[in-house]
Request: fold
Amino acid sequence: MNYSELAAQIKAYCENSFPESIGSVTSADQIAQFVMNAEQRIYNTVQLPALRKNVTGTATPSNKYVSCPTDFLAVHSLAVVDANDDYHYLLNKDVNFIRESYPSSTGTGFPEYYAIFGPNSSDTDELSFILGPTPDDDYTLELHYFYYPESIVTAGTSWLGDNFDTALLYGALVEAYTYMKGEPDVIAQYEKLWQHSLSLLKQLGDGKDRRDSYRNGQVRMPVQ
Reply:
């Protein structure tokens, strides 16, 4: 389901074309907000592989800070890749642990720990990683992290729209019908349908995508 189809479905289910503008907020803006609200709720409920990115960077000598990607939300893993292409995964700690364990930036070595640090000033919301100990050489870093993919509103299509449009549709309908101050029983029904579609999505993202039949065996239902 692409965005045009999704917007049409929202209007049809709600029997409302949302024709009125409220100040500078147009009908298109209203529907777009319903969809983006639903996307955010889904992305913060289910850990889908489609929400992860992989990037590489460099830690430089005598500099304990490494900038996070601009679309960074949360860490999945952070590793140092040595000259032999061996991966050394860093342990996540609090900033105060690293400050106390490595109080001097001149005490350098092979990084073992990291923490999320920042923003560094009031002028930016960019986060950084602080490493401990401070790197003693150039090191390649490989970061797997969670991010918000581009919304179906602006991209036209998305992983959710292509693979699990029911969760996106019912999530948007809950937002839309609540906005309309609709009948409580209808809102409750949409919420029930959304929760059901979300539970199926969790079975995929938090279940099937994290196991295989070789290690875990096939899923079995007891026969009465």
